[in-house]
Amino acid sequence: MKKFLLSLALMAAALTMQAEDGKLRVKMNCKPVGDSIVALLNVTEDHEVRKSFAGKQGVFDFEIDVPNPASMYLVEPAALRGEPASVFVIPAIPGEEVQLTAEDRTRYDIDGSKFYSQFHVADTIIENAQKAGKDVTQTIYDFIKAHPDYECSAYLITNMRDVEKMKEAVTLLKPDVRDGRMKPLYQGMLDQIEAEMKAEEEAAKKQAAGIEAPDFTLNDLNGKPLKLSSLRGKYVILDFWGSWCGWCIKGIPQMKEYYTKYAGKFEILGIDCNDTEQKWKDAVAKHELPWLHVYNPKTSSVLTDYGIQGFPTKIIIGPDGKIVKTIVGEDPAFYTLLDELFK
User: Measured at the alpha carbon of residue 146, what is the angle toward residues 140 and 151, in degrees to the nearest 5?
Assistant: First the structure.
């Protein structure tokens, strides 16, 4: 099975002999790896197992508890420090054994018994499709259609990027595969994607231009209540941010530049989220933020009222109290819009 190192888009594994039920046996012969490997296993959405294993010159043989089929990362310790390192992404299947081999850092091979030998066939096809510039989702769909009785076909659904294609692929599977041990894995991903899509649709409605911005009252840096509607009559930018948000902090210099550039033409109301009050106040002082600030406690409904899905989110409100534009992320389009509005 041919894979690219450092690629998280595809997952693969190999089996050579049965391991104890509930455990995955891992055998590695990967020359680029040293004497230590770390296994990261998402057992549930809220529970990750992180365990280190010792080897010698890239050779490892260990077992790890796997309560149910899941995705697992095998990484060199350097990767956890943000340094260049090998990253292997594999399906972790209880009661199985996986073998990985790699000659260098460009790719790795996986092969083994029934589940993984089937996966090997699929992965080779997918890799060739990637090299040829073909659509991966369609390639996976075609493979599932041709192999509806392969257990790995159910697993491959988690690598598709089109929810409708994913649903269609499920119907192609043989009943015993569709309702087998991979079902919680692919169904969980489908449910998550659909929930995110629904949340995005709801957020789009709440953030649409022309919608009256929901009023709220939050405490400012002095602990005094500040009501959004008190700023009516001028342009107001709601800046949803946090001291923990790297992109929020990265955008501060340009925010300050434009606040000075168009002084008096708009006001910024920074809404700190997911911070302690002390961290919020320290961040405002550290970065010398000259605009208005309020603290959004966890008990507040403001994030829900505005459909906030990510940080930073900037919502421009007109003098009439209605939303002009919502921009998610540190996007140059925000500053282009300010130039259009205030030049």
Answer: 70
Banded model confidence at residue 268, pLDDT cuts 50, 70, 90: very high
> Would you say the C-alpha torsion 216, 220, 223, 229 has a positive or negative sign?
negative
Classify each residue of 243-272 as buried b or exposed e, where b means 16 or more C-beta atoms within 10 Å of its C-beta.
bebeebbebbeebbebbeeeeeebebbbbb
Split at pLDDT 50, 70, 90, the class of 19 is very low
> What CA–CA distance (Å, rounded) separates 187 from 64?
24
For the record, the structure tokens of 156 come out as: 């491959």
Do residues 177 and 154 touch, judged by C-beta distance below 8 A? Answer: yes
Strand partners, 342: none
- Sorting pLDDT into bands at 50, 70 and 90, what band is 113? confident
pLDDT digits (tens, 9 = 90+) for 120-134: 899 999 999 999 999
Distance CA 126, CA 3 (A): 10
Q: How far is 30 from 232, CA to CA, in rounded Å?
A: 63
Region 144-157: what's the mean pLDDT?
96
Q: Which of 152, 173, 311, 340 minimizes the C-alpha distance to 241?
A: 311
